[in-house]
Amino acid sequence: MKDEKRVGTGIVWTIYTLAMAFAVYGFLALQVQIYRESGQYYCMLDCMHKLAAPWDFGLFYLPVTSGYILMNRKAYQYAGFVIRYHRIEEAWKAAFRELAVRSGLCSGIYSIISCLFSWLSTYEVTNWETENSIFGQVNGGIYEGSPAVVILAFFIFNFIKTFLAVLFLVLLEIWCKGLIQGYLVLGTIMVVEWCSEDVGIFLNLFCIKYGNFKFPWTVWLLIGGGSLLILGAYLTGRNVWKDKEFYE
Predict the structure, then answer these.
(1) In DSSP terms, which residues pair with 78 in a beta bridge?
(2) pLDDT of residue 3
(3) How far apart are CA 35 and CA 153, in angstroms?
């Protein structure tokens, strides 16, 4: 039985990875074509920047990933789950850890695929140190930091957005007795940020957009802010679970 479960899990993860690869390839191929037709001098970081935007990240990755992560959420709603951990607080910690691990795996897969395909699209990691780069044209200056910082921020931001979205959906399901309301809120935010890149509510906020690297401290401030939001979601969830109804 355990071997069958492992095989089933492996198949699901394989399908998920292939779906992400197919989606990233499609989005990136379209963007690279736009870059080439417009004669823009682009690099790997520019491609990653586009894959972190609301219309790519939010349109396919986030709905599919949150749905996959929360596929087994019903297990948290049974009294046996709490009995297993003896206390409601311990049960919430266990659920929080499991959601964090799943969010980390999914965002990691997406980030690795995005980095790989972005690099294959240009073979030039960065040109942000030149004034004729897209970064230089947008910010009116060059990027003096390391491209490794941008890549690291890409991984961290993807995890923060994934985990916060999942936690938001879990908590809102308890309050509203359904996931539809949560997806409607996330969808509204995505549309607003899609229409204006300058609006940073969620997807545009925790993102490797050019403005976030204009000053070296901005990206670390955002990572710190995202970490505090995760902590706030954890504390909120702990209080909410004390009043949560569990089923036999």
Answers:
(1) 247
(2) 60
(3) 23
DSSP 55: I
Do 166 and 178 form a contact (C-beta atoms < 8 A)?
A: no
CA 240/CA 68 separation, integer angstroms: 23
Identity of the amino acid at 188:
T
Longest Cα separation, the chain: 64
Amino acid letter for position 215: F
Q: What are phi and psi of 200, to 5 degrees?
A: -110, 90
> What kind and span of H or E run contains 18?
helix 2-38
Chain centroid, CA 162 distance in Å = 4
Mean pLDDT on 83-104: 85
pLDDT in tens, 65-93: 998 898 877 666 656 666 677 777 788 88
Q: Where are the alpha helices (DSSP H) in 39-87?
A: 44-51, 62-69, 79-85
Torsion of CA 150, 153, 159, 163, to 10 degrees: -140
Which amino acid is located at 234 in the chain?
Y
- Taking the C-alpha atoms of residue 120 and residue 33, their distance in angstroms, rounded to an integer, is 14
Measured CA to CA, the distance from residue 184 to residue 181 in angstroms comes to: 5
One-letter amino acid for residue 112 of the chain:
I
The continuous run of DSSP H or E covering 242 comes out as helix 218-242
Q: How far apart are CA 103 and CA 237, in angstroms?
A: 17
pLDDT at 42 over 90: yes
Give the separation between CA 231 and CA 167, rounded to whole angstroms.
11
- In this prediction, residue 146 carries a pLDDT of 92
